[in-house]
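Obj.: predict assembly geometry.
Materials: sequence records (below).
Method: joint structure prediction, all chains together.
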Amino acid sequence: MTMVVESARLTQRDFASSDDVRWCPGCGDYGILSSVLKVMPELGISKERIVWVSGIGCSSRFPYYVNTYGFHSIHGRAPAVALGIKAANPELCVWIATGDGDGLSIGGNHLMHCFRRNLDVKILLFNNRIYGLTKGQYSPTSELGKQTHSSPFGSADRPLDPVRFALGCGATFVARSFDTAGPHLVDVLRRAAQHRGTAFVEILQNCHVFNDAAFEEITNKAGAGSRQLRVEHGKPLIYGDSKNLGLALDGSALKLTKVENVATNGGASAVLAHDETNPILAQLLASLPAPDYPMPFGVLYATLQPTYEDQLRHLNSQAKQKALGGLEALMKSGQVWQVPTA
Amino acid sequence: MSIQVQSDSEVLSNKPEIIVNGAVIRFAGDSGDGVQLTGQRFTSAVALAGNDIATLPDFPSEIRAPAGTLYGVSGFQLQFASKDVFTPGDSLDVLVALNAAALQTNLMDLKHGGLLVIDTGALGTTQLKKAGYSTSPLDDGSLSGYQVAAIDISALTRKAVTPVGLSTKEAGRCKNFWTLGLVLSVYDRSLESTLNFIAEQFKKRPQFAEANAIALKSGYAYGIASELFHQRYRIAAAPRSPGLYRNIDGNTALSYGLIAGAVCAGRPLVLGAYPITPASAILQELSQHRHLGVTAIQAEDEIAAACLALGAAYAGAIGACCTSGPGMALKTEAIGLAVATELPMVIVDVQRAGPSTGLPTKPEQSDLYLAVHGRNGEAPVCVLAPATPSECFTLAYEAVRIAVRHMTPVILLSDSYLAHGAEPWLIPDACQLPKIEAAPLPPVEQFSPMLRDDVTLARPWAAPGVPGYEHRIGGLEKDYDTGQISTQPQNHERMVRTRAEKIARIAEDVAECRIEAGATQGKLLVIGWGSTYGAIREAVEHTHRDGAAVGHLHLRTLCPFPRGLQSTMSKFEKVLVPELNSGQLAHLLRAQFCLNIRSFTKIQGKPFRIDELEERILAELEVYS
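Observations (raw structure tokens):
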């Protein structure tokens, strides 16, 4: 694009809007915003070509804080709005900010169809396992039995896993990070930005007002080594504070099993290497049972498939080859007759 | 039977020709009998011969209802004449009943003395029983008031197409073309256009093309030769403005109007739609014109369809969606967002009888409240309603124009009667359609997303991709000046009133209302909207011709009401509003003008008949005499 040269000079500051950021002080969303603002100038895309779209919820305030075009739409519908934006102008770079309630409850249907279409948009789902903006009701990712204002005796709903949902719907890029992950989050966002097609990133995010420390055990630096599995394409699936734990494939049971004391049990060759192009491995990783196994972070799955925009371009060029004539020809199509001037 | 060649005509008949002004014909049969196709082909043949026409297809919501059932009967009615016709007609001159159930459900609409064509091959004991007959109507005297042409159409068709070598079932399927040939001969219409159609339609299946052509010709020959038909009818061409014509139904005209609007705006058209009767034909039509910059997307649901149309509008395209009542209900929140973000968008509601799923294939005008008021918060939009199938083109184009010029969602209320009804259309010159332009963007340094045009109050349409105009917008209330989020109380009231004023000012930009027919002042003004146009116009013309001071005014703009409405109403002693609902327009008029509006309503999933309107008009007038 012609704007690339100029946009290369843009900095993080150019992408911060002048709006006051209105999230609660200490909200995990601040960390996500700061990581996004680091990545935006790196994309080499000028500001006017970027559109942030959101639905409703704390996460959906996001567009107001990025100095690009932004559309704060209605609850759950951001992927549908984004579809229209891309159909009107496929050259735009569209990012969606959503949450566990917005994206997986009221908007679950649109998210599913966005994945299957492989629309070329980047979706950041801030998962805090609670409804924050409505002040503390259980969400579709809240754990079974969760006590909230709307479930004083505990929730009867089993939680949904965003990553497994995305994989199940045929998403072509699925990744996970968390709000305070800093460079890791930036790396994941960068990878998402580079992906052609729907890039889905689940970001574990702390709502310290209504669901504080929901992911504390996983994201806390102390003990993080054994609870987080940082996956990288081609690298062995090793974790643990002293990198002595790994994962191997138990082919007979079709599952991943733990390898203890990796160093003495054959080293890296005894564990499986991550292959982000393997959808079955991605499902196995996403299905690792907690708390015995770690939670995987990074790019779990990435595959290159034709995007929805590619399909539209293809159909449009086919239609143009048929050369069916203009508006006038259309209006005069079918059987016509002339009434002569009297 | 002898057939003579007449020297002065191509007509091979010795029967007397009777000149008539017009006729109303209904083809009725099983939903698998090809009745709709027969009706459409007959329409095409008479239209090509220069008659004015109005059609009314009437089909069941079941795709293939069990054969021979009363609820599986499909009908196609048309009126054609040597003068302007405005409706498909009240009562029938000719009824073609292709099975017992069709006879049972349609006979009551045939005029006394009218021509009844029956396929006796479909009047077997089982079929009669299924249709609720205990005795054969052919034998029990129940048809004595009509001219009955009882013909074994099924057998004659099978016999005629024998040389082609089709299976019995396939051969039987040709009976609609045999019937069409018969009726074309009675009305002295050429077979040419139908033969061309058959050749084109079945070009990949030459056997069927041959069989249908044979069936058509043998039906025609039968009509000429048979003593059952004593005379032929000739209906002269209707006087028309010069120009190029074609037949068009409402859904097609509406689709073309949207395309024309987008082409004239120099922007792509993005349609979001979810299949729903009776609006799906618009989605299907618009899916065919990618080469004209149309992207029609079948969305995952009604909500997504509206949201993607709005997203497309935000990104600078003409965003549109088409649906019917149940889908409109689901789109409500997205339309509200279009109001709040002040983006141009066209929402087409092809109304059908409700509530809920209602009568999915039958017309009703019961979504007017929904269109005008059906959103949370103060959310005014522009509402338009075409009066005839061809006007669907004009008003779809107009909807795009108003949406772009005034930066507002526009709801276009069609209905299933307009959607499927067809009439001759004087094709406008595509090159002469006016350009549609959005207000130019203000200079970057002055830009605010809410900087309004002085005249229209429209905000600037700064779409992504334009450098320097990056801004954020959404459903939260915005500051009047800066467009930033604002919760300030006075600002909210100002914004609500401004959005309302913006819609009110559309009245300055659309035609003043006018009397369509009848008196321009006097006793009774009949105000209609939408597809009731033809019936109201005829009823008013008849009563006016008989000396009553009755006028007809038909609204195309339902929100805001057009200029001149109050002054026109004040020229009449009384105002009567006929509508196919429980009185929604009457209610809106009363609320706005505080007048004693009389309401006449019908909620049967059927259009008004001219005679029932005339009767009501006379009753209203009688109060004065």
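Conclusions so far: Confidence is low (pLDDT under 50) at residues 1-5 of chain A.
To do: check interface contacts against the pulldown list.
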